[in-house]
């Protein structure tokens, strides 16, 4: 069963590969969509009544917020330390955990499906993909200059794929060392076992500008393979990238 839901400012595609009655599958999809809308309501930086917006205005503290927000704040702090400050949810002194939230939300949605007895499924949300179960999923990584083409075709099994780039929103990722938009890398894709980390790593590598390529090489030793395209059109991949044959 397939379903597309508009939430978190993007189209989320959900595919369940399970031999179960249609009403059960619809209920599972409904649970996933409900969760994603709950995340959007709590973490949106555009909704004035979200907990993140209220915290930004000083109306809410970490002690009074939902446990999910406390988890996200703690995870962002851990990633800030792990990436030497390149992943920064407080850059400029304003809270914006968006670089973590979408990947985390999809990863949590995927785990809900596993816990509900639907281990084989595919969720795609604006560059963040959870491809779960004992089957090979084909994933096309968008070409960073031509949305009608793909730069790479990947074949992944029970893995995550996350892509971050400047080709849609321009220089929205800031290099904290320079205070300027990161421009050296146009697109970064990271694959690995954990979507939340893959998403954060892709964002951090983009923020690092030239140092991002060396950072991606180091990630491969921890099981996270990658592909990147520079602003001047050069392509780089780590040796273990699961390219489809």
Automatic annotation (TrEMBL):
<dbReference type="InterPro" id="IPR024932">
    <property type="entry name" value="ApbE"/>
</dbReference>
<dbReference type="InterPro" id="IPR003374">
    <property type="entry name" value="ApbE-like_sf"/>
</dbReference>
<keyword id="KW-0479">Metal-binding</keyword>
<keyword id="KW-0808">Transferase</keyword>
<dbReference type="GO" id="GO:0016740">
    <property type="term" value="F:transferase activity"/>
</dbReference>
<dbReference type="GO" id="GO:0046872">
    <property type="term" value="F:metal ion binding"/>
</dbReference>
<keyword id="KW-0274">FAD</keyword>
<keyword id="KW-0449">Lipoprotein</keyword>
<protein>
    <recommendedName>
        <fullName>FAD:protein FMN transferase</fullName>
        <ecNumber>2.7.1.180</ecNumber>
    </recommendedName>
</protein>
<keyword id="KW-0285">Flavoprotein</keyword>
<keyword id="KW-0460">Magnesium</keyword>
<dbReference type="Pfam" id="PF02424">
    <property type="entry name" value="ApbE"/>
</dbReference>
């Amino acid at each position: 069963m397939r379903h597309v839901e508009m939430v978190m400012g993007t189209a989320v595609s959900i595919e369940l590969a399970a031999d179960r009655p249609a009403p059960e599958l619809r209920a599972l999809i409904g649970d996933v969509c409900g969760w994603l809308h709950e995340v959007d309501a709590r973490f949106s930086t555009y909704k004035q009544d979200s907990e993140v917006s209220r915290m930004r205005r000083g109306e809410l503290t970490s002690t009074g917020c939902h446990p999910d927000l406390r988890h996200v704040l703690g995870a962002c702090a851990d990633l800030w330390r792990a990436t030497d400050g390149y992943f920064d949810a407080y850059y400029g002194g304003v809270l914006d955990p968006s670089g973590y939230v979408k990947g985390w939300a999809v990863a949590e949605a995927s785990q809900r499906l596993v816990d509900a007895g639907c281990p084989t499924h595919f969720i795609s949300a604006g560059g963040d993909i959870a491809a779960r179960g004992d089957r090979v999923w084909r994933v096309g990584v968008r070409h960073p200059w031509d949305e009608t083409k793909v730069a790479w075709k990947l074949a992944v099994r029970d893995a995550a794929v996350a892509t971050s780039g400047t080709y849609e929103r321009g220089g929205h990722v800031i290099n904290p060392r320079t205070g300027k938009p990161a421009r050296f890398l146009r697109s970064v894709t990271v694959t690995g076992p954990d979507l939340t980390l893959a998403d954060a790593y892709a964002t951090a590598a983009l923020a690092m500008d030239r140092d991002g390529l060396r950072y991606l090489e180091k990630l491969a030793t921890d099981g996270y393979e990658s592909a990147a395209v520079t602003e001047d059109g050069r392509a780089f991949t780590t040796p273990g990238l699961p390219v489809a044959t």
